[in-house]
Design goal:
By secondary structure, the chain is of the alpha+beta class. The chain has helices at 11-32, 52-58, 74-88, 90-94, 100-119, 124-135, 166-176, 182-194, 210-215, 245-252, 268-273, 278-288, 310-327, 363-369; strands at 152-159, 222-227, 231-237, 257-263, 293-299, 335-339, 382-390, 394-399, 405-406, 410-414, 418-427, 430-432, 434-435, 440-446, 458-460, 468-478, 490-495, 498-511, 531-543, 555-560, 563-574. Strand 11 and strand 12 form a beta hairpin.
């Protein structure tokens, strides 16, 4: 047997046998080393890495003139230099959306990265390299420099009939402003194609849970945010289906601005606008929830049945304006119409060549050019709670209606009168030390358990508590009810973020719609289209204010059997009899 095939008695012996030969080669190897070599400096302007499968395709391209040492052409280098410059521009990445250059440079980069992905059927290592390469330029909202003025926060709620395209427009805006990566959208597109729902992929950016994606219907109010040069926007994507109107009311109560999305497609606009459609109900609920400004987006203008036709656009406009006027919007000041296509992204960020008759600004630019909202920073703290959950303590979500909140501040939770302390503040998922009115906040609280909080409770400043009670007088407009309404009638009250059952305990008087005069006698009943003053009694204690003192917490809607029956405002709080 060959001694080399058998195992040696000791590995050390074996090594010693080979050692002299290796030792003899060492000096020769050392002599060959170049000690004075230049240090390696990476070339930042190197051409983009292109996988082999792509180079084959590139071979058909006309040959470039001047080759450069890094295997790219000069043209490659210049484009690459441009994108790097764009990335380094201070305005570029800063605004998640508005700082044009940065967004565009980022998209070019992602474009090349996305193309790489499709082309490579190579090994996993190669894919990993691409992923690393792609992830570098993506910024979510860049933290602003410390001395930058705080951008105004605006909450925009998307409302309208089911399938009008609200979530798709929201997803498209997030993509155009750089809040969703191209790669994520490509992933959604692949998944949506597998389910034969390829036009739904944009809405998946906002419809995050599985049930919403399977059915293609929004259930909960989706939240996302984007920035323009001047403002910081929070998108509230409300559900359009009539079963989920209570959720939509919660979303609208947090909004400063509503975007009513209607579909221009033949038949779809009509169903949304007819008696049972949600276009009417949503517009009315938004007005009741305190939204003053309405933008009407006429979506699906690129549909074959419409094809950017001015006649169809005007037809939708003519039908809507009288109704919106009746609800209480002023057509000249409060309403702005614009055509768009959510799926193609036309007229959201850039003007559309196919639509020469529309001369206004595109949607995102229009939002940016709106005048600032007036908010009182020095008022008492009022934060109606929308949602709560446990996460290393008790976390609540809501929109700060008035006053300012800062870290470590002592506040009182009404109507339970629990004293709580603010441990940390997140405004749109960015941690801050203080917050001003109009911001959507997540607060981590100390001194209260999550089970002790309900949506509709209110955080107040200890020296100025909000009013709470069960009985109040209100002026009500009956909007839609087949029969008459008498004392003893029960309905569901939606006031700010609170939902509570109420009973009309007495009708006090009727109010004349034109003159505003009150009747001398007590009415025995009220019916549709009448205005009355009534006393309402809630099943439990609720927080509310009179409309005169604090409009956001003094308006309400009454609903019954899935329909909005009446809208109203609180006139007077009635103290409880002991």
């Amino acid at each position: 047997m060959d001694p080399r095939d058998s195992a040696p008695d000791s590995w050390e012996l074996e090594e010693d046998a080979e050692a002299p030969a290796a030792a003899a080669e060492l000096p020769a190897s050392f002599a060959a080393l170049n000690v004075n070599a230049k240090p390696f400096v990476p070339n930042v302007n190197a051409a983009v890495f292109v996988p082999t499968s792509f180079q084959a395709g590139a071979a058909d391209m006309p040959a470039a003139d001047a080759p450069v040492e890094n295997g790219g052409t000069e043209a490659d280098m210049t484009t690459e230099e441009e994108t790097w410059e764009q990335k380094e521009e201070p305005g570029g990445g800063g605004g998640g959306g508005g700082g044009g250059g940065g967004g565009r440079g980022r998209q070019q980069d992602l474009g090349s990265g996305g193309a790489c992905q499709e082309g490579t059927a190579g090994s996993e290592d190669e894919e990993m390299m691409e992923e690393e390469e792609e992830e570098i330029p993506m910024h979510k909202v860049a933290p602003p420099p410390p001395d930058a003025p705080k951008k105004e926060h605006v909450n925009v709620v998307f409302i309208g009939h089911v399938d009008a395209g609200k979530s798709t427009i929201g997803g498209q805006i997030m993509y155009l402003t750089g809040m969703v990566e191209k790669r994520t959208l490509e992933k959604y597109e692949r998944e949506a194609k597998e389910k034969n729902r390829e036009t739904w992929y944009l809405s998946w950016a906002l419809d995050t849970n599985q049930e919403e994606r399977d059915k293609g219907k929004t259930v909960e109010v989706g939240r996302a945010y984007f920035e323009t040069e001047k403002k910081h926007f929070t998108i509230l994507d409300a559900p359009g289906h009539k079963s989920f109107v209570p959720n939509m009311i919660g979303g609208a109560s947090q909004a400063d601005l509503a975007v009513l999305v209607i579909s221009a497609r033949k038949g779809e606009f009509e169903t949304g606008f007819e008696k049972g459609g949600q276009t009417r109900e949503h517009a009315m609920l938004a007005k009741t929830a305190g939204v003053k400004h309405l933008i009407v987006l006429v979506n699906k203008m690129d549909d074959p049945t419409v094809h950017w036709s001015l006649e169809r656009y005007e037809e939708c406009k003519e039908k809507l304006v009288p109704f919106l006027k009746k609800v209480g919007f002023n057509p000249k000041k409060d309403i702005h119409f614009m055509p768009c296509s959510g799926l193609a992204g036309s007229n959201l960020k850039d003007p559309v060549p196919e639509c020469p008759w529309y001369t206004g600004l595109p949607f995102i630019s229009h939002l940016d050019s709106l005048p600032n909202f007036t908010r009182s920073n020095d008022g008492p703290v009022r934060l109606p709670i929308v949602d709560k959950y446990k996460d290393m303590g008790t976390v609540i979500l809501g929109k700060l209606e008035s006053g300012c909140i800062s870290k470590a501040q002592q506040l009182v939770m009404m109507p339970n009168r629990h004293t709580v302390e603010v441990l940390s503040l997140l405004s749109d998922d960015v941690e801050t030390d203080d917050a001003c009115p109009g911001e959507n906040l997540k607060l981590r609280l100390k001194g209260i358990e999550e089970e002790e909080i309900l949506p509709g409770f209110i955080l107040c400043s200890p020296d100025n508590l909000c009013h709470s009670g069960r009985t109040f007088d209100a002026q009500i407009v009956i909007i839609e009810h087949k029969s008459i309404i008498c004392p003893g009638y029960n309905a569901v009250l939606h006031i700010h973020t609170c939902i509570e059952e109420v009973q009309i305990s007495a009708l006090i008087c009727l109010v004349d719609k034109k003159s505003g005069e009150k009747s001398k006698t007590r009415p025995r009943f009220v019916k549709q289209d009448q205005v009355c003053i009534a006393r309402l009694r809630a099943a439990g204690v609720i927080c509310l204010e009179t409309f005169k003192d604090f409009p956001q917490m003094g308006r309400f809607t009454l609903r019954d059997e899935g329909k909005t029956i009446a809208i109203g405002k609180v006139l007077k709080l009635v103290p409880e009899k002991d």
